[in-house]
TrEMBL record:
Keyword Transcription: yes
Pfam families assigned to the protein according to its UniProt record, in alphabetical order: Sigma70_r2, Sigma70_r4_2
InterPro entries linked to this entry: RNA_pol_sigma-70-like, RNA_pol_sigma-70_dom, RNA_pol_sigma70_r2, RNA_pol_sigma70_r4_t2, RNA_pol_sigma_r2, RNA_pol_sigma_r3/r4-like, WH-like_DNA-bd_sf
UniProt cross-references to NCBIfam families, sorted A to Z: sigma70-ECF
Identification of the protein by name: RNA polymerase sigma factor
Lineage: Bacteria, Pseudomonadati, Pseudomonadota, Alphaproteobacteria, Caulobacterales
Source organism: Caulobacter segnis
Cross-referenced PANTHER family: RNA POLYMERASE ECF-TYPE SIGMA FACTO (PTHR43133), RNA POLYMERASE SIGMA FACTOR HI_1459-RELATED (PTHR43133:SF8)
Keyword Transcription found: yes
Length: 188
């Protein structure tokens, strides 16, 4: 656990400079514009809680991963809320969705998530499994797989994107950005 002064200094010097970028990122991916400020505060709160275990090597990647995960969690909650609304209609007798139907829907979503996970490349699948199913942190995941932290972060990002795409009806493919070709000064 980090002391408060080191954590405060890290937050002010390394996290706050990204505030405009974080707000743009959240505004781009959030349906309700009024929620951006609240989400930004949640990002800060989660980033600070995470940094108490150890200051991340790449603050930018860490903060944007936190923001992305919060957006994913919010999307999941929104989906759950929609089920609750349907459940509320059961109470007034306008619609009959039984607990069995809800359990079936949840099982189908879990089955789809498992299929999406199996479609990922082996290393990516293992990183997602260790981080999201077993709950290991980045350092523990990197140590277990014998890879660097950046590799874990990158594989997790690619895997979660592909998994989210698959869950939303896409093909769930890993989309890698190809690096720009370097110009050779001595090319003929």
């Amino acid at each position: 656990m980090k002391d408060d002064s080191a954590l405060r200094r890290w937050f002010v010097e390394e996290v706050l400079p990204f505030e405009p970028d974080i707000e743009r990122f959240l505004a781009r991916h959030c349906r309700v514009r009024d929620d951006v400020v609240d989400l930004r505060q949640e990002v800060y709160e989660h980033a600070l809680m995470g940094a108490q275990r150890g200051i991340p090597q790449s603050t930018r990647a860490f903060v944007f991963t936190v923001a992305r995960n919060l957006l994913i969690d919010r999307a999941r909650r929104d989906r759950i809320v929609s089920f609750d609304r349907v459940a509320d209609l059961d109470l007034v007798g306008e619609m009959d969705i039984s607990a069995t139907d809800r359990a079936y829907t949840a099982r189908e979503e879990l089955r789809r998530a498992m299929i999406g996970l199996e479609r990922l490349p082996p290393r990516c699948r293992e990183v997602v499994r260790l981080r999201r199913v077993e709950g290991l942190n980045i350092r523990e995941t990197a140590e277990r797989l014998g890879v660097g932290h950046h590799t874990v972060e990158r594989q997790l990002t690619l895997g979660l994107r592909a998994l989210a795409n698959f869950m939303l009806g896409g093909e769930g493919r890993i989309e890698r950005q190809t690096p720009k070709k370097l110009r050779r000064k001595d090319a003929p």
